[in-house]
From TrEMBL:
It is a multi-pass membrane protein. The chain crosses the membrane at residues 49-70, 77-96, 108-127. It is found in: Cell membrane. The keyword Iron-sulfur does not apply. Its main location: membrane. Keywords: Cell membrane, Membrane, Transmembrane, Transmembrane helix. This is DoxX family protein.
Amino acid sequence: MDTRTAPYAALVLRLALGLMFVAHGLTKWLVFTPAGTAHYFASLGLPGFLGYIAMAAEIAGGLAILLGVAARQTAALLVPLLAGATLFGHAANGWAFASPGGGWEYPAFLTAAAIALALLGDGAFALKPIGRRVA
């Protein structure tokens, strides 16, 4: 591994993943509405209140990741949310995310990206890194 560029690679990953979480959380809040999100979760057979938790976790977690505040720990904590989206929200729709209802390729990739960030670290320009830093 190139320890000179690894912190910048983690930064790129952190910014992309954090922005994705914030965008998805805000979409649930502003477009689908909290009540609509809860209804969607219930339609999947999940407790509706999990929709509110997912929305809050995506916005707060995404902001923490973007800013580099315990980003690797936050990414690890959000892996179950992404895995749940993959299994409950998209698995039945096939592989391709372009499929009706969105397939599971995108949330599965995001799960892998969150795991990679958790393993790699906060990266460059993190406001509050916790744990071991890469060079």
